[in-house]
Write a structure and sequence with these properties.
single chain; mainly alpha; Serine Threonine Protein Phosphatase 5, Tetratricopeptide repeat; 74% helix; elongated
């Protein structure tokens, strides 16, 4: 009887311990869901200290290390070593999936897939945790090397397992659908998660994010879902972070309100100082922001949060201090991981470099890098146009034309204005053959437009200044032909072409009558044109050595 009582007490004790561990495990997973990675790490380390063979806790400990958006290569190595050390002692399926996740981040895609498939095989495809780990690794938004279709396949497989009841799987499934651009099925998956757990804040938050991505007109819908998420779990930090960002540029007071709620439900770290300084920036208190950033950097030295330098550069840029902006961007690029530097950082850095002579080549490389990194055509065009207009404002027309020419290359359907602006800047920059090439492209795409032919003629004339080769004849002849369709609209092109032929026939062909006929055509369009009248006077003069229109166009 006594022995039975002791055994019973031991079993009860184990049940209590297991229940406490389960509760603690859920708390740790919730911390990860709420992006409180430091708190999660502490929880899982305590579980492992009490139970070194707890593979689930080990998996989640590794996740708490690699999931922060500022995870470093060292963090990846630490997590991988953690998984590998435990895997060597115990052939754990979920840890094998964890190693595959890290290999995916490292770009070792075939190795990752081998580990994923091995984990599925060893668990006979019936382990929800394994399938969920694989689905998340491939389907989350930050997984550059992940296969969203593969994620969907494995996550759907998890939902078919007997007694499935995990909303996290369904939210990960929604994320994978969203990654594929299938917003409809993403919302269905998120709603299915809410059907399992109506208070699963992450699902409402994700639905809100989809509607927010659709832009104006959807605000009432996504704000409603964000409010549901906050009501379901007031400690769910990501929704406060998102609303802080959302109101950051439009309503600083609201942004500040959500910032405080975000911080109250977050693990305070070196990012906190950065965001407090960013609020100063949002209020337009740029010098105060700089001062606060300097304090943050001093306190966090020698490893301050890299974004502090980027924010400092932005503040100095607003203060129109190019030297300080460049210095701050130099520090930012030194401290920040290359894959976390966004295109606009390269652009702002480049545009400030351009303000200081001698930096044109470096600035150009940075602009090209930004264009290469940005996936949105409209952004690429803005970057290129800013560069072109900068050189144009400095009267460096050839350089401006080179950047306008890149717009033609990047833009799917360049307009007549795009092409002609490029050609005109080449013309003003004295790059006449390049101007001819661009205006020839324009005349091919828009064959009824006399402007392009007129500019081919002017560029050719600038090369063949003596007109002896007649390089401009065909282009000016075509200009006249097309311009006659609307002599008012194309008056300038007609006048220019007529004057060319006045000079050509008078000076090259020695055909005075033809020259006079073109003068009369010019004067019929504009009787008061001083240049045409002077040509006519010269042609009618008894002096034979007069050469009207010898150089009617000047090189720019």
């Amino acid at each position: 009887m006594k022995k039975y009582l002791i055994v019973s007490m031991i079993m009860v004790g184990l049940l209590i311990v297991n229940e406490i561990t389960a509760q603690t495990m859920e708390q740790g997973k919730k911390f990860i869901c709420n992006e409180r990675f430091k708190s999660a790490k502490d929880v899982f380390q305590k579980i492992i200290a009490a139970d070194p063979n707890n593979d689930e806790a080990t998996y989640w400990l590794g996740q708490s290390i690699i999931r922060p958006d500022d995870a470093t290569p060292k963090d990846l190595t630490d997590a991988k070593n953690l998984y590998q050390s435990k895997l060597n002692a115990n052939n754990s399926n979920v840890l094998m999936a964890g190693i595959g996740h890290i290999e995916l981040i490292e770009g070792k895609v075939p190795d990752a897939r081998n580990h994923f498939e091995a984990a599925i095989s060893l668990s006979q495809g019936k382990n929800i945790a394994v399938l969920n780990a694989i689905g998340y690794a491939n389907g989350n938004f930050d997984s550059k090397n992940g296969d969203a279709a593969y994620a969907i396949e494995k996550l759907k497989q998890a939902t078919q397992i007997k007694k499935f009841n995990d909303p996290d799987v369904l939210v990960n499934l929604g994320d994978a659908y969203r990654k594929m651009g299938d917003g409809g099925n993403a919302i269905i998956s998120y709603q299915a998660a809410l059907n399992l757990d109506p208070k699963y804040a992450r699902a409402d938050y994700r639905i809100g994010k989809i509607y927010q991505s659709q832009g104006k007109g959807q605000e009432s819908i996504y704000i409603e879902h964000y409010e549901k998420a906050m009501a379901s779990d007031p400690s769910f930090a990501p929704v406060y972070a998102n609303l802080f960002t959302y109101f950051y540029e439009t309503n600083v007071a609201k942004a500040s309100e959500y910032f405080e709620k975000w911080m109250a439900n977050s693990d305070l770290d070196n990012k906190t100082c950065y965001y407090r300084a960013s609020l100063k920036y949002a209020q337009g208190l740029f010098m105060e922001a700089v001062n606060q950033i300097n304090e943050c950097i001093a306190v966090e030295s020698p490893n301050p949060y890299p974004k502090l330098f980027g924010l400092k550069a932005n503040a100095y840029n607003k203060l129109k201090d190019s030297i300080k902006t460049i210095e701050s961007y130099t520090e930012y690029f030194k401290h920040q991981d290359a894959d976390k530097i966004v295109p606009i950082d390269y652009i702002d850095y480049a545009m400030n470099l351009l303000k200081i002579p001698g930096n044109e080549i470096q600035a150009g490389l940075l602009i090209d890098k930004a264009v290469g990194l940005d996936s949105i055509e409209a952004n690429k065009l803005i970057f290129l146009k800013n560069a072109a207009q900068f050189f144009e404002s400095r009267k460096k027309f050839k350089d401006a034309a080179d950047w306008y020419n890149k717009i033609i290359t990047v833009k799917k359907n360049p307009s007549k204005f795009d092409i002609n602006t490029t050609g005109f800047n080449y013309f003003k920059g004295g790059a006449y053959q390049q101007a001819i090439d661009i205006f020839t492209l324009s005349s091919t795409k828009f064959p009824d437009d006399p402007y392009a032919y007129n500019m081919i003629g002017k560029s050719s004339w600038a090369i063949d200044t003596t007109m002896e080769k007649g390089m401009a004849n065909a282009a000016f002849g075509k200009t006249i032909q097309l311009s006659l369709a609307d002599t008012i609209k194309y008056k300038a092109q007609l006048l220019n072409s007529y004057k060319y032929f006045v000079a050509y026939y008078a000076n090259i062909m020695k055909d005075k009558n033809m020259a006079i006929s073109y003068v009369e055509k010019a004067l019929s369009l504009e009787p008061s044109d001083a240049e045409a009248n002077s040509f006519k006077a010269a042609l009618l003069s008894p002096k034979q050595n007069t050469n009207p229109g010898k150089q009617p166009v000047k090189k720019p």
